[in-house]
Amino acid sequence: MKEVTNFKSCLKPVPDVLVSCRGLNGENNALAVEYAGNCSYDPPMVMVGIVPSRYSYNMIKESGVFVVNLVSEELREKYAYLGSHSRRDENKLEVIDMKVGEGVKVNAPVLLDCPVSIECKVVDSILTGSHEMFIGKVEYIHAKDELIKEDGSVDYSKINFLKFR
Ligand SMILES: Cc1cc2nc3c(=O)[nH]c(=O)nc-3n(C[C@H](O)[C@H](O)[C@H](O)COP(=O)(O)O)c2cc1C
């Protein structure tokens, strides 16, 4: 074993999620995020890391809510688009024809093409360095009918998760 001297994001594999959000002016948006993880199961919480220069950053900072949408392989092209274009320049959700629904508990868009969407309210955030980690308390979870088991949980084994890179 030798020391690794060249590294940035060293924890792998990463989840590939789409974080959707809404500005105070009503604008909808979503961006690709791989800085994401569970951070509590009681109460259920997740965290997402957003670089302050992203257009979405102020939307989440100001609204205090976001939605984490899990992504399947068939959404690869749309994921790449949302991860390489900014709402600063265009309404990218409309450009790529992403179907959008309304949050039940939060005022933010839900991406209807995604198998699971997790509505969150920001309870804290930490500016770690390059990213600000937003801690979101889970308020409501949507899942496609065929993914919901008898006990009300999600059968994640049925999702062909995107592994972007
Ligand atoms: C695979 C992938 C993972 C990404 N992960 C993150 C991330 O964790 N945090 C982040 O702020 N941006 C991340 N990005 C970059 C944003 O998705 C990208 O800059 C996006 O265009 C920002 O959109 P916005 O300006 O409309 O908010 C990622 C991009 C890709 C392609």
Q: What can you see in these coordinates?
A:
- The protein has 165 residues and is mostly beta strands.
- The chain has a single domain (17-158), classed as Roll (Pnp Oxidase, Chain A).
- It contains three helices and nine strands.
- The chain has helices at 55-63, 76-82, 92-95, and strands at 17-22, 28-33, 36-41, 44-50, 65-70, 100-102, 109-111, 116-127, 132-143.
- The strands form two sheets. A seven-stranded antiparallel beta sheet has the order 2-1-5-8-9-4-3. The protein has a two-stranded antiparallel ribbon with strand order 6-7.
- The protein is globular.
- The mean pLDDT is 98.
- Bound molecules: flavin mononucleotide.
- Flavin mononucleotide binds next to strand 2, strand 4 and helix 1.
- Its cofactor is FMN.
Low-pLDDT ranges: none
Report the structural category: mainly beta
What's the CATH first level? Mainly Beta
| Biggest sheet architecture | 7 strands, antiparallel
Order of helices and strands: EEEEHEHHEEEE
What share of residues is helical? 10-25%
> How many H/I helical runs?
3
Ligands, deduplicated:
flavin mononucleotide
Please identify which CATH superfamily we are dealing with: Electron Transport, Fmn-binding Protein, Chain A
- The average pLDDT is 98
**What is the gyration radius calculated from CA atoms?**
16 Å
How many structurally independent domains?
A: 1
Cα(first) to Cα(last) distance is 25 Å
Q: What is the subunit organization of this protein?
A: single chain
Total DSSP E strands? 9
Order of strands, main sheet, comes to 2-1-5-8-9-4-3
Shape: globular
**Based on the structure given, which CATH architecture is correct?**
Roll
User: The CATH topology, please?
Assistant: Pnp Oxidase, Chain A
